[in-house]
Amino acid sequence: MKYLNFSADFMEKIKRGEKKATLRLGIKNYKPGEKVIVRCGEDEIGIAKIYEVNIKRFREIDEIDVLLDGYGSKEELKKALEKFYGKFTEDDMFTQIVFDLCEIK
């Protein structure tokens, strides 16, 4: 089973259902219907089912995408992504993975 890895900072947001999506720089190999182990930092927190996988340029990210990712604004989301990936452009491709945490450890 594949992993979906997050910073430990996201654990509570994911458990509470406030973060239902993640953006990964580049094109990643996840598929709708796939189950993955969710890991926050060093802790495995449960199993998630992937519902959607979308490939989008950053400029195509809309308000709904931002909310699914657990942020209040696109600028806030961009700052968070830059902590992980460094600077990127509006034309850079991201894989959006929409998931539901279906089993919590």
Would you kindly provide a written description of the structure presented here, covering whatever features stand out?
- The protein has a single domain, classed as Sulfate adenylyltransferase (Roll).
- Helices cover 22% and strands 40% of the residues.
- It is built from three helices and five strands, in the order βαβββααβ.
- Strands 1-3-4-5-2 form a five-stranded mixed beta sheet.
- The longest helix is centred in the last third of the chain and has 12 residues.
Which structural class do you get from the secondary structure elements?
Answer: alpha+beta
> What is the molecular shape?
globular
Sheet having the most strands? 5 strands, mixed
The total number of structural domains is 1
CATH architecture: Roll
> Which residue ranges are poorly predicted, with pLDDT under 50 across at least 5 consecutive positions?
none
Strand order, main sheet: write it out.
1-3-4-5-2
Order of helices and strands: EHEEEHHE
- At the first level of CATH, the class is Alpha Beta
Mean pLDDT, nearest integer? 97
Cα distance, first to last residue? Answer: 16 Å
Radius of gyration: 13 Å
The overall strand count is: 5
Count of separate DSSP helical elements: 3
CATH topology: Sulfate adenylyltransferase
The CATH fourth-level homologous superfamily: Sulfate adenylyltransferase
Helix content: 10-25%
- Tell me the fraction of residues in β-strands, as a range: 35-45%
